[in-house]
Amino acid sequence: MKAVLYICHGSRSAEGQKEAVAFVERLSSSISIPIQHICFLELCEPNIVAGVERCVHDGATTIYAIPLLLLSANHAKRDIPYELEKAKKMFPSVTITYGKPFGVQRLIVSAISKTIEHADAIMLVGRGSSDIDAQADFKQIAHLLQQETNIPVYPCYLAAASPSFSDVVTSLAKTAKHRRVAVVPYILFFGQLLDYIHETLQAQQTSDVSFTLYPPIRTYDVLDRLVEQQVKEWR
């Protein structure tokens, strides 16, 4: 019997956990696979091995493990495969196939561009990673978004890479080069990041520059279609 295991990053925030569960419930409602479960890489339960165990307990003999991550960085390349290898050793008779993060997707870029209103600049805010491939992908997404909207896009990060979110906000506020800045968090779930982003933007609002915070990427229905396509290709 087939199963889909959705792997989320995990969050210390109860709100972030609720967002992840609600997101997976939305995705799973359109996937015609008999067994579907959620698990987390860190900070939340069940962990990945426990998630596999739940699938097996429900009768799964073949599991498709989908990392619900926007970009392919160290978590996708190293941490999740390591946990799945542990699960394979525990259940050698079960076939576990590893999926892929969303990656650079024009469909996601197009969905974002359609939501941008009354802006003369866009801040594209990533969680951040030291992985050079993830940084290159993020820059490509920013480039595609600028092409799509014909609006200047400023990519930045909340951690682990530069330029930082706070530095770009401060710079845009001081120079007043743009009056209406759309702030797009290229993040699946806000969690504790929401408060930090919101407070930083509020502190930098001026009579000359207005920052408008947009919702996280999980709100876009295109993600459902991309997951459906992954599952369809696997089957």
Automatic annotation (TrEMBL):
Alphabetized Pfam families for the sequence: CbiX
Protein's UniProt keywords contain Amino-acid biosynthesis: no
EC number of the protein: 4.99.1.3
Cross-referenced InterPro entries: CbiX-like, Sirohydro_Cobaltochel/CbiX
SUPFAM superfamilies per the UniProt record, alphabetical: Chelatase (SSF53800)
UniProt GO molecular function: metal ion binding; sirohydrochlorin cobaltochelatase activity
Keywords for the protein's UniProt record, in alphabetical order: Lyase, Metal-binding
Gene3D superfamilies: 3.40.50.1400
CDD domains tied to this protein: CbiX_SirB_C, CbiX_SirB_N
Superkingdom of this protein's organism: Bacteria
Protein name listed in UniProt: Sirohydrochlorin cobaltochelatase
